[in-house]
Amino acid sequence: MNIQDNLKYTKDHEWILIEGDEATIGITDFAQGELGDIVFVEVETVGETLDKEEVFGTIEAVKTVSDLFMPISGEVIEFNEELEATPELINQDPYGKGWIVKVKVSDNSEIDSLLSSEDYKNMVEG
Known about the structure:
Elements lengths: L7 E2 L4 E6 L2 E6 L1 H7 L2 E5 L6 E2 L4 E7 L3 E5 L4 E6 L2 H4 L3 H4 L8 E5 L11 H9 L1
Antiparallel strand pairs: 1-2, 2-3, 3-9, 4-6, 5-8, 6-7, 8-9
């Protein structure tokens, strides 16, 4: 299982990379492994400002559909368009080409409530 130290994580298995006031969000290697083959990603919230833990989209695998939750409050400014044609990028490269959205962060103080790589690892290995 790949957990990267430079990222923050949520209990809902999303990762977040903070760069200034922008954040890139995706799902973790653990999550894509649990979901299995990802066949569709839907994000219809570009341009919307959402609160932390609001649903920003859905991810569909062969056997299930899961909601995607905002790790922090912000405006969804970009969707990874490559996922429309090749959603399996999330399975192949969840921390790279498989990113899902970019967000303009509203409240930097929320970053402190995210899980570190160590905390996330402890949670999934329980």
